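Below sits the subject:

***
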Amino acid sequence: MNFPCIFIVDDDTAILESFKIILELEGYRIFTATNGEKLTALLIEQVPDLILIDYNLGNDNGGLLTVVIKKDPQTSHIPIILISADTQLRTAATLVGADDVMEKPIEIPLLLSKIEQHIIHG
């Protein structure tokens, strides 16, 4: 069986590891990146079923990464969920073409529901 693949992009390694463990327990194949450069390297290797991107990525901007992914015909179909504590996230996500948003602190059942919605139901 081919389990869905999710990329998680966050500059906070504790969040990356937590999400990785939780999502692997749910049966997903997880790859992590701490910045845009590492995400780009991952995208060269394979195309995920979904990408979770922190909007505020230290030196990178999750919104700009989303724009780049959505403009590329090879990756434009990949659902992207932007994550942030920013209360203006929904507006920003719409502007950059993200498919969904999650506000921090993350509620795991809601995150799992959103992931399933985008991967299984498209």
